[in-house]
From TrEMBL:
Disordered: region residues: 314-392
Upper classification of the organism: Bacteria, Bacillati, Actinomycetota, Actinomycetes, Streptosporangiales
Residue ranges crossing the lipid bilayer per the database entry: 442-462
Name of the protein in question: Uncharacterized protein
Compositionally biased region (Low complexity): 347-361, 370-392
Length: 476
């Protein structure tokens, strides 16, 4: 469904001055800006470990202006909401700080630019339970402006939903059911002495050479926690079947490789690894000798993630082919398409922008934290007909979060200077002289005062002439 809206904004207010009974006023001027709202239905899917294990249905309301002035930003806004009872679901238990990001892709084509505009937005989450619902960002936005008049056609394309887990650390005790102890090589020791400082006062231990334990985890790092003891032996580590870094460690030695003299010092982090891609991994710990090895627990680490994991992305597509919307860029420098002279346009019947480099929208855009990221990709169209002194550019502006501004120049910059540089405020600088905010009312008031003074001066002159009329035999 398409809804058209018209808005009026005042460009200048009246200025009134009263001086000696004289009333002066400046007229009001206004301009119009046309906007359109489009309601669309989207369906989102992702992998089995993603945020949409079953299809999620969204209602999207696209809002943009269809009549603009040159240089005025075309702000494409996506209002996003759940359409029914389906929801994006948390892929795990997360402390506050997880982020759901949305990227709406619009295809743009026309005589000014062919490319894509990405509208971005995000919503930071509260505490999330495993399988619990995730909140959506209410609005995502992206803008583009041009330096030449013309027309564009815009078609909404895919919507990408990304989930980014927060940075966190979680300690898992040795008796957690997710830990797999191979065979009967390991014994469970409970009610340990408090001075041992074991996690939950228990450990698993073995003296069998070759005894193994495996621990599945999801994150970017993991630690092995044990007891430091002069009687302990060497153990080997592997992540997803590949040697860890380092590959071995010995709890009977300190960090410099020197033997220790302590016994049963629990909650000791013997080994750790960071910088893994965020996904599910498996850590395998294997004994290499007949000395004691103890498992006190594991620490799962998720470092700050700059790029949302691909396996937690959902791809949303419109249920029906959207209609293109035509946008007119006027040549005036005012608001609303040259002072409102451009009438509202109707959506184009074409289903997709002609000449778009990616009409299918199958390639996901680069994701980023609402943290700072570029918001559009562009491919310049063929050079429009213009004089040598014109420069045509498309400026892709930032999304709700601070972004870098990308400028795509469609024609060569003129080699001949268009404006001669003279001191600021000179006749040919193209700049206005420095003014103060009170200059307008002051000039109007001064004009009124001068007018009143002139009137009284004229009356005085006539009276003097009348006083001397007898000497010159003049009749007044």
């Amino acid at each position: 469904m398409v809804r058209w809206r018209a808005g009026r904004r005042t460009l200048a207010a009246a200025v009134v001055s009263v001086a000696g009974g004289v009333l002066l006023a400046l007229p009001l001027t206004s301009a119009r800006a046309e906007a359109v709202e489009i309601d669309l239905n989207y369906t989102c899917v992702s992998g089995p470990q993603g945020v949409a294990p079953t299809p999620v249905n969204l209602k999207v309301t696209l809002t943009l202006q269809t009549a603009l002035a040159v240089g005025q930003p075309l702000d494409v806004r996506w209002g996003v909401a759940y359409r029914d009872g389906t929801r994006f679901l948390s892929p795990g238990l997360f402390q506050p700080g997880a982020r759901l990001s949305a990227t709406g892709v619009s295809g743009i084509s026309g005589d000014l630019w062919n490319g894509e505009l990405n509208s971005l937005g995000y919503k930071d989450q509260a505490l999330l339970q495993n399988g619990g619902p995730i909140e959506l960002p209410e609005l995502i936005s992206g803008a583009v402006s041009t330096t030449q008049a013309g027309t564009l056609e815009l078609v909404p394309k895919k919507l990408f939903i990304d989930f980014t887990p927060p940075a966190s650390e979680t300690v898992v005790n040795d008796d957690d059911p997710s830990i797999a102890y191979v065979g009967s090589d390991w014994a469970d020791y409970n009610d340990r002495a408090p001075q041992f400082k074991d996690i939950h006062e228990d450990v698993h231990a073995s003296e069998v050479t070759g005894a193994e334990v495996s621990f599945p985890f999801t994150g970017t790092g993991v630690d092995f926690i044990t007891e430091q003891d002069y009687r302990a032996g060497q153990v080997q580590f592997a992540i997803d079947g590949k040697p860890g870094i380092p590959a071995t460690a010995d709890a009977s030695k300190d960090e410099n490789g020197n033997p220790v003299v302590v016994a049963n010092q629990g909650n000791h982090t013997l080994w750790g690894m960071r910088g893994l891609p965020y996904k599910q991994h498996t850590l395998t710990v294997k004994k290499l000798d007949a000395k004691w090895a103890m498992v006190d627990g594991f620490r799962v680490v998720t470092e700050q993630i700059m790029t949302p994991p691909k396996q937690l992305q959902a791809v949303c597509t419109p249920t029906k082919k959207p209609t293109a919307v035509r946008v007119t860029i006027g040549g005036g420098g005012g608001d609303g398409g040259g002072g409102g002279t451009t009438p509202p346009t109707t959506p184009s019947s074409s289903g997709s922008p002609s000449g778009s480099p990616d009409p299918s929208g199958s390639t996901p855009p680069p994701s980023g934290s609402p943290s700072p990221s570029g918001s559009a990709s562009a491919s310049p169209s063929s050079t429009p007909s213009q004089s040598q002194s014109q420069v045509v550019a498309v400026v892709v502006q930032g999304s709700p979060t601070p972004t870098a501004t990308t400028t795509v120049t469609l024609t060569a910059t003129p080699t001949v200077a268009q404006v001669r540089v003279t001191p600021k405020g000179g006749a040919q600088t193209g700049e206005e002289p420095v003014r103060t905010s009170a200059s307008g009312p002051l000039l109007v008031g001064s004009g009124g005062v001068m007018l009143v003074i002139g009137v009284f001066s004229g009356v005085a002159l006539l009276r003097r002439r009348a006083a001397h009329s007898g000497d010159r035999n003049l009749t007044v």
